Amino acid sequence: MKQHLKTLAAGTAILLLPATAPIAGELNVSISGFPTGAGQARIVLLNGEDGYRGITVPVAIVETEITGGVARWTESGLPDGDYALIVYQDADGDGELNRPVFGIPTEPYGYSNGAWTSFGLPDWQDVRFSVAGARIEQDTRLRTNVLVTAAQVLAAGIPSLVAIFLALALVRRLRSRNSNINQLSEN
């Protein structure tokens, strides 16, 4: 009789286990805002605020193709909990988010929930999303830091401005020379 009760208790516990165990969720990530199709999209999935702050290792770091200006990734079997995403375009394929000056990224990047900041990390509450046994959709648009954009415009703009001013100076000089030649021929 005791053996029968132990078997019955074990069977009951097994039947109750699925009801109390966490149900795994699915995360579907869609990234847009790629200025070019160069390189790959990199997705960093972080678990909890400690993961977001770099205290614990990422749950996943994934590279995925950019097709038609969009990158997609799906992760199934995620345990219930709070997560965050950091995504970026690894245009040069070096596996890193390039930050050459003052730690400012030069490659387009973004965060879960569309959170954004030009300096540092957005607040945890702005990037946090919960997985609770359901399908979660995260649509993120990449952006480029405003200082990087200004530097790129200046880098492209300064040579163009110099070329324009040199061309105007040349035209002015040619007009002046033609004017002098016309005056000499009239005399």
Terminal Cα separation, in Å?
Answer: 134 Å
What's the multimeric state?
Answer: single chain
> Helix and strand string, N-terminal first?
HEEHEEEEHEEH
Summed up, the helix count is: 4
- Provide the CATH top-level class of the largest domain: Mainly Beta
CATH superfamily of the largest domain: Immunoglobulins
Strand content: 25-35%
* Helix share, percent: 25-40%
**CATH overall fold name of the largest domain:** Immunoglobulin-like
pLDDT under 50 segments (min length 5)? 1-21
Please name the CATH architecture of the largest domain.
Sandwich
Q: Radius of gyration, Cα only, in angstroms?
A: 29 Å
Q: Please, what is the average pLDDT?
A: 81
Tally of structural domains: 2
Q: How many strands, which pairing sense, and closed or not: the largest β-sheet?
A: 5 strands, antiparallel
Total strands: the figure is: 8
Structural class: alpha+beta
